[in-house]
Design the sequence.
């Protein structure tokens, strides 16, 4: 039922505060956050003692949430974390490694490549398999040792929105659970848990930018190419923003880590290629600003999503949507929302079939 909404995608974008609240519910107050993972608790305790590294496997949007988690896990724990798309992982030889926790991520739990990659893992040596999934009775949930469920509710729109942000929440809970293996991290883990409680309200606030994002999106209607830039853990968010735009508006969109600009893509920059950048007030902002200047001085038009306190001003060819200041751990999750809205409005202006984009299926159950 669409209710007051014109499309399922928009409804699902607006459901994110509730979907995130449901995914956090009963979990942020746990003493051991790993208790929100279902499966044999004794085995889980043993696995947590033995993890030496994390291998994430997923496709599409779920792959992007995995890439974001790599930044979290490697900056907050001592565990190395690899992330790979399932269609590559399943056909490739991997060197034998000990103590690997294999994490699959999937909204549907039925994606053929992700399931096949899991089967491959199980025929080799691994410590345990954990799935982050939105469908309790799915194949991935059944086939994995452990599950950390997202509680997004059914997602109808082909373009994944609330499944992605709830995956990020689940991955942050997993990161915190991994941090809690070391008592030296206890305080930081508690701060992160408390920060997560602020997330639904922060998402509500970013949804209030909808009208200004809609106005901004008009500039994209007649464009054929676009570039999405981010740095650090905002790079996978830029990738997800680019995927959303190409998927529903059919505008070619490519994401780059901003530092790579001058190694090639800068040659593409002109007034006909809008450049979207996610520019929160993190330690990488100054570096990003100099990348943006590289673009502007070549006639590029910039569309920025920036912190309301960031030292960066609107000027000719720089359009800015301000996002509230927030703890750094929440930034990738909240900055996803304006990018979803941008793609949505561009697609609606262009008149595409937003909920069922051409050539795509909601769940890719064949290879
Ligand atoms: O159900 P899954 O999360 O395993 O699906 C993986 C991808 O097919 C999916 O995320 C796809 O990229 C989205 N429709 C993009 O919006």
Sequence:
């Amino acid at each position: 039922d669409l209710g007051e909404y014109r499309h399922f995608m928009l409804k699902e974008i607006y459901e994110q505060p509730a979907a995130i609240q449901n995914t956090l519910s009963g979990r942020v107050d746990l003493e051991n956050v790993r208790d929100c993972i279902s499966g044999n608790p004794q085995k889980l305790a043993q696995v947590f003692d033995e993890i030496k590294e994390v291998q994430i496997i997923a496709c599409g949007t779920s792959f992007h949430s995995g890439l974001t988690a790599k930044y979290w896990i490697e900056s907050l724990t001592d565990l190395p974390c690899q992330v790979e798309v399932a269609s590559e992982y399943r056909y490739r030889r991997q060197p034998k490694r000990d103590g690997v926790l294999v994490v699959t991520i999937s909204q549907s739990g039925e994606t053929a490549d992700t399931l096949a990659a899991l089967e491959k893992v199980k025929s080799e040596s691994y410590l345990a398999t954990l799935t982050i999934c939105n469908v309790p009775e799915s194949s991935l949930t059944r086939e994995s040792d452990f599950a950390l469920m997202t509680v997004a509710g059914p997602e109808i729109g082909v373009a994944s929105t609330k499944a992605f942000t709830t995956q990020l929440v689940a991955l942050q809970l997993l990161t915190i659970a991994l941090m809690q293996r070391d008592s030296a991290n206890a305080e930081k883990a508690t701060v992160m848990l408390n920060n997560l409680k602020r997330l639904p309200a922060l998402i509500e606030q970013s949804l209030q930018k909808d009208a200004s994002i809609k106005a901004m999106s008009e500039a994209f209607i007649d464009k054929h190419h676009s570039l999405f830039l981010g740095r650090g853990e905002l790079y996978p968010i830029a990738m997800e923003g680019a995927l959303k735009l190409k998927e529903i508006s059919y505008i070619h969109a490519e994401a780059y880590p901003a530092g790579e600009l001058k190694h090639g893509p800068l040659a593409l920059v002109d007034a006909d290629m809008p450049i979207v950048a996610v520019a929160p007030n993190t330690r990488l902002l100054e570096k990003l600003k100099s990348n943006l200047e590289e673009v502007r001085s070549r006639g590029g038009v910039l569309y920025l999503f920036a912190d309301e306190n960031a030292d960066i001003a609107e000027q000719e060819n720089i359009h800015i949507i301000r996002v509230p200041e927030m703890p750094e751990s929440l930034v990738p999750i909240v900055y996803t929302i304006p990018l979803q809205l941008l793609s949505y409005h561009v697609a609606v202006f262009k008149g595409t079939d937003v909920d069922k984009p051409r050539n795509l299926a909601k769940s890719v159950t064949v290879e």
